[in-house]
Amino acid sequence: MDSFFRQTGKLAAIDWLIDAVIAAGAFGFSCLQLTLAVNLLIPDDFMRRLMGIRAVVPTGVSLAAIAAVTLPLVARRRFPWPVFLWTILSWGLLQTEMSGISLSVAGPLVALFTLAAERSRGEAVGACALAAAVFLFAPTPPDQARVLTQLTVVQNVALALAAAFAGYGLREHQDRVQAFEERALAAERTRETEAERRVEAERVSIAREVHDITAHSLSAVSIQAAAAERLVERDPAAAKEAIAEVRRTSKAALEEIRAMIGVLRSGDHGAEVAPTEGTERMGDVVAYLEGAGIETSLAMEAYDRACVPTFIDVALFGIAREAATNIVRHAEAHRAAIALTVQGAAPVAWAQLTVDDDGRGLAASEPAPDHHGLVGMRERARLLHGSFAATRSPWGGVRITVSIPLTQTEDSHGR
């Protein structure tokens, strides 16, 4: 609450009520101390007379003095310096009129505590030094016992130091709590920003998947349509089969694109829709290549899908499909080979994809800088902390090699 007051400079009605209760409590405590402190400290009346100490009987003047020192505490948080100066100086001036130790220091101590909690450390040190000086050098009545006076002075100075340290400690605690809350809010904002960034990255990834599906499917459709056009007159049955393949390819592409659009539309509702299948559909890639007249082999005997995380499996399938699309569209190849393996052992195992062709080589593998092609495959591997290489194949064409570690950091899953 004090920290809030320092920020806003305003006090609510409940705060004024609390301060009024504190001021009334200080007044009541000071009245009790006025009448009971000496009697409790030295119960025997003969000893009090021997030491020159007389019992204090409250009078209207003494009650007015206590009120002057304690009741201004109502405004202690609104005017910390004026209230402190009033209470400490009033106490020093009235001390000699109240038989020395009989006037309580509760009012000045509460004011000092409040000032230390509300103001800077330098101001707290200055206020504490002023209070200690007043307690040390305030005049005492000549009939007051010297030993008891010295003991009370030491006690008052110690209490002033304790009040200042307590107020400063409260301020430091409130500042730490406020800093912690601000860091928590900043962390929450950072998490929200990171979540938004990951959502955006996922949508970019889905857009790349849509591109791959479109390029893959349209290439197949174009090839089959061209074949049907050549065969429609001399081999109507073969032309009919090519047209049926166009229909099947188009239908599959539409289903995959519909699934991805579903992910984009339902992203705000937390729906989980898998945008693509994994390597269990590698046969479709082989069929796509063979449908384009490319003799293709597939080796997956050393690939255990059960030990490969789903998102890595999906990524490998996407890369293989993109590589197949490049072969069909740009390589002018006649032969291709695809191999999937899992190598090593946990926790350093990795999945590896190798795609070979006997086409025209790297010069024809990336047709334009605005196409995904090799760039897209490399980016997919990089996002999963993997490696990507496009080198010359032993057959004279291009060899695509992708290695992705099976143990991923948390950031790797953000894609």
From TrEMBL:
GO CC list: membrane
Pfam families in the record: HATPase_c (PF02518), HisKA_3 (PF07730)
Reactions performed catalytically: ATP + protein L-histidine = ADP + protein N-phospho-L-histidine
UniProt-listed SUPFAM superfamilies: ATPase domain of HSP90 chaperone/DNA topoisomerase II/histidine kinase
EC number: 2.7.13.3
Record CDD domains: HATPase_UhpB-NarQ-NarX-like (cd16917)
Name the record gives this protein: histidine kinase
